[in-house]
Amino acid sequence: MSRPPAASSIFVYGASGHGKVVADILRAQGVRVAGFIDDQPENKQLAILGLNVAGDGKWLVDQARRQPVAIALGIGSNADRQRIANYCVSAGVHLLTAVHPSAVIAPSAHIGAGVVIMAGVVVNPDAQIGTGAILNTGTIVEHDCQVGEFAHLSPHAAMGGGAKIGSLSWLGMGAVIIHGVSVGTNTIIGAGAAVVRDIPDGVVAMGVPARVSRSVALP
Fold it and tell me: Which of 143, 152, 156, 179 is an active site residue?
């Protein structure tokens, strides 16, 4: 898992409800959070969990020129999270992996940089979690699963053994992918859906069993 360099100032990028949860996870890990980073001017005066918005992305990059800086990604939108992560990495900002202490992660699982793993998550042996992915509250990722970069598994979603979900895809709240089945990139699976056959790239699928309902615009 990704750890910050020594003497880093650690921020959460994104002063939203999602960012609030990420900050809470870091605190539960014993990490001292210096504040939030947010690019929305109207959020500059926010105080969340007693933490202020220190500045925007340009301010963060300026800080990174002076001292080691690390961020945890507090952005729910997959495409925006990828864009911010790439911007930060190119500026020398370290991507921190945030893992709630109640999560159960097999030693053989691989967790990429910038991942957020929330309370009650289970990640079983040889699962692969890509850079910047979100495993939201209570999700289950079974053995040998693959979660693509900047994908989002919503609360109480589950993947059976050997299942795959592509980069920038979203598995809705309570949705399941059965063992050995694949979901493509930039695809949305609706809440409560049961994915029992492969779903292609760039679509919305919903229902039990999940069926494609429409296409989505590729980023």
Answer: 143
